[in-house]
Amino acid sequence: MFTTFRNAWRIPELRKKLLYTLLIILVFRIGCHVPVPFMDPDAVKSMFSEGSFFSYMDILSGSALSQGTLFSLSIQPYINASIIMQLLTYALPPLENLQKEGESGRKKIQKITSFVSLGIAFVMAYAYYVTLRNHGAIRVSGKGAGVFVAAVIILSLAAGSTIVVWLGNRINENGIGNGISMILFAGIVSRGPGAVWAMFQLVKSDMKYVFAVPAVLIVFIVMIGFIVFMNESERRIPIQYAKRVVGRKQYGGQNTHIPIKIAMSGVMPIIFAMAIMSLPSTISMFFPPKTDPVGFWQKFYAGFINFFRYNSPWYAILYFLLIIAFNYFYVSMQYNPIEIANNLRQNNGGIPGIRPGKPTSDFIQRVLGKITLVGAFFLGVIAIFPILTNIALPQLGIAMGGTSILIVVSVVLETVRTLESQMMMRHHKGFLE
Questions:
Q1: What residues make up the domain containing 29?
Q2: What's the distance, CA 102 to chain centroid?
Q3: Distance (Å, rounded) from C-alpha 132 to C-alpha 54?
Q4: Within 143-289, where are the H helices?
Q5: CA distance 300 to 289
Q6: Are the CB atoms for 54 and 131 separated by under 8 Å?
C-alpha cells in the first residue's frame, strides 16, 4: 500500500490529484469547526453521552454533530438518499429504465438523488433543531426570536450538508477515489487520536485498566488484518466457453471465472441495521420516558426504550440478526442468478459439470447462499464486537469501532486499487514491481 502511494506521488498528474484530495479534506475539516449560531456547545455535547442515532451520526461527521458546527449533518442525508434511490431503482420501472440507459441515465439518477438529499437534509436539520430545543441547547433572547433562530439553524445545517456533498463531487472529478467515501474516511479517522488519548488518560487516572487498554488496541489491530483478509477473499465460480468456428477463425474456448466476494455488500447492511436499531433511542429524545412510569402504557414505553439501549445484550443479539437479514436482502438485489445463467447460455458459456439453464441458476444460488451467510456473520461479528466490549468495559467508551474500522479499511483498499489502475493505464514500467 505504501509503495503504491510512493510510486503514485512520483507521477506529476497523480500527485496533483492527491494534493487536491488533501485540500478538499482540509476544507471539510475546517468546516467541521465552524460553529452554528445560537447553540450552546456544552448542552449539545451532553446529548451524546449514550448510544443513539445522533451518536452514530456524530461518528460519521467526525464529531461535528456533537460540537454543533456547520457540517453537523455531514454526508448522512446523501447516504440516506442514495439508499432510498437504490431501493427505488429496483422497485420503480422508470428508474430501472434510467439505470439501463448508461451514463446519461446515471447522471439523471444522480441529479434526482441530489434533490432527495436536500429534502432529507431539511427534515434532519429540523429534527435536530427540535431535539436541541427540547434539551435547552439553543440560546434565544427576545420575543419573536424563535422563528428567526430556527430558520438560521435549519438553513445552516442543510447548507452545510449540501456543501459537503459538493466537496465530495469535486474529489470525484479532480481527485482520487470516491469523494463521499473519502470525506466519510476523513471524519472517522479524525476521531482516532482523541479516542486513543482518552484511553491513555483513563489508564493514567485508574491503573486497573493498564492491561485492558493495550489489549483492546491489540485486538483492534488484529481486527484490521481480519477485515483486510475478508475484504480480499472471494469465491471463484469457474466458467468455460465453448469453441465455435466462424469462417477460418476460431472463437471461444476460454476458461475464466465469476468472482463472488465474501463481503460483497460492504458496510451497507450495518448502516441499514443501525438506522432501524437507533430509531427507538431517537424517538426517546423527542418523547423521553417517565422517570417513574405509571400505568401499563408508560411502563411498556419505558421498557421498550430500555430494551434498545446500546449497552443491552438484547440490543446486540437483535442487531446481529438484522445485519444477517439485510446482508441477504442487499446481495439479492446485486446478484440475479437467473440473469447470470441466461447470459452464460447466450454467450456459449457454462459451469463445468453443471447443465445450462435452471441447474446453472440453482448452483449459483446455492453458492451465493453459502457465501452470503459467511459474509453476514463476518459483518455481524465486526459490528457487535464494540458493543460487547462496551458492556464489559463501559469506562472505555467504545462505540461503533468495528464499523468505523470496516469503513476506513474499505476506503483505503479502494483508493489503492484506483491508484494502481491509473498507474497501469499510463504504462509506467517498474512502478508496480
A1: 1-189
A2: 25
A3: 11
A4: 145-174, 179-189, 192-205, 212-232, 268-277, 279-286
A5: 10
A6: yes
CB atoms within 10 A of CB 325: 14
The number of domains in the chain is 1
- On whether the CB atoms of residues 119 and 154 are closer than 8 A, the answer is no
215 three-class SS: helix
Residues ≥6 apart with Cβ < 8 Å to 160: 31, 69, 70, 71, 72, 73
Q: Is 158 among the domain residues?
A: yes
Q: Strands (DSSP E) along 327-402, which ranges?
A: 349-350
Residue 244 lies in a domain: no
Q: What is the CATH number of the domain that holds 47?
A: 1.10.3370.10
Q: What is the pLDDT of residue 431?
A: 47
Identity of residue 202: L
Q: What is the pTM of this model?
A: 0.77
At residue 291, the pLDDT reads 74
Name the E strands within 40-179. Answer: none
Work out the number of other CB atoms within 10 angstroms of the CB of residue 80: 18
* Cβ pair 238, 255 in contact under 8 A: yes
Residue 420 lies inside a defined structural domain of this protein: no
Which cell goes with 192? 482516532
The list of the chain residues with pLDDT below 50 reads 50-51, 428-433
Give me the amino acid identity at 352: P
Query: For residue 349, is it within any domain?
Result: no
What count of other Cβ atoms lies within 10 Å of the Cβ of residue 253? 11
